[in-house]
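fwd from M.: "can u put these together and see what the complex looks like"

so here's what she sent:
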Amino acid sequence: MPAAEAQLADCAWSYGMKLSWDINDPQMPQKPAHFDRFCEWPDGHVRFIYSSDEKKAQRHLSGWAMRNTNNHNGHILKKSCLGVVVCAQDCALPDGSRLQLRPAICDKARLKQQKKPCPNCHSALELIPCRGHSGYPVTNFWRLDGNAIFFQAKGVHDHPRPESKSETEARRSAVKRQMASFYQPQKKRIREPEAGESQDHSRHFNSIPSLENPEDLDVIPDAGFPVPGQPCLSFPNSDAYKATCDLTTFQGDIVPPFQKYSNPRIYLPRPACSYELADPGDANLSPYPTFYKDAGSIPKDADWVHLNTLQYNVNTYSSFERSFDFTSKQHGWKAVLGKAGPGERLDQAQLPPEAAHSQYTPQPPCRYLTTAPPAAPALQTVITTTTKVSYQAYQPPALKYCDNVREVKSLSSCDYASENTQMSVYAEALDLPAPVVTATSPTASLPLKIPRDCWTVRQHALPPRTDGVETWDVCPSGLGSTVGYADRISPFFSCDNEDF
DNA sequence: CGCTGCGGGCAAT
DNA sequence: ATTGCCCGCAGCG
């Protein structure tokens, strides 16, 4: 897996953020010196510059479920996030994680999808809309200019990651094959793994955190979770990564897949830029042979059929969430939003974004990287205040400058990282309320372990924009990272942005 | 059948 | 004017 790791490491570095540009600029940077590796899970206010030869950029792919949004600008493709489909009852999958399906992009298909029952507990499915951009869905912008594809994201996803597109597709194709083989009379039930699907799954199994009592575990997060500041991290520890790869634990849905590790430290090695399927050579690692609990009642729904795989594929960071009381936050969020079924979106849309943000925020590791020590009461205060600030900041683009570096430093009880793993972040992006919650979450009681316990945020003397926007460098210690850290630090900066 | 991009149209700000 | 979003259409796999 060295190649994949290298890829991730590359992906973690954003050239696009080093340059000063906005997707709406009349002139894009001409002839970029080099291009960014494609990042499948961009989060936060990030910008990438891809080569126009980059296939995935050409197709405007994203791990997030992004749908086309008409912005009446033929030159800039805008997409907005659909969120994630979860079980309305928040039921636990066999491994303890939560269902997180990829919302169908097509409206009709999505409605249909939401009418289906939870493949795990048969209760309703529920679409968690994305409100990561000041109450609106996170938006991604694509613009082709010359030999470069410019990508800009606005907002921080305030929901878990859905399945990636490749995972969904793999699952669908797997279902087809599954059904095809099942309906062949006397066909053996223990199906042989098929390269096309197993390659994907094997990769994801490799990334499965092993756990029994997630709440008791130390977690070293990486990009397996929506990470505004580090959407594409490399594995912090490849040994640990391998340590979670005992595939024999996935050979049945009765045996808890993680029981072997009663008290492990969890590494969440899910590749953030996992758009490539793994080596088909791992075909024998497919979970399918032991898939069905009851071969006599094979569901026809793709989500059903592939559930066992899905739970590993899509929830590699669910254990992380649980480690941070994710579910309770989710419930709190639901409480605010009211009960919802399909079509809830409209109801939720009526809510002030502050409510959603302050109640429901799956907390990316990087947010915890700011090991802010405040206790819960302080958290509440900050949430209220900063969300307001953030929201206000979003309207009139009156710039206040982010000049308090010390506050940033105080966010992380850490040393300072090496210079060559830095990324730049524009202070202009500091506008989102969502990270406020997380940035101030007390981590002292949380079982989180941060890689090298350190992030660096410092003012950056990079190409000053004429509009007075300043640039910041943010870097996780010892790790290449990307962007969006601004979102985490925004509340403390009380920065307004220029509202891209 | 679903994904994707396009573009008309509407409503709110 | 901008932004968000709904809708339908067409091309594609």
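replying to her w this: The first helix of chain A runs from residue 2 to 11.
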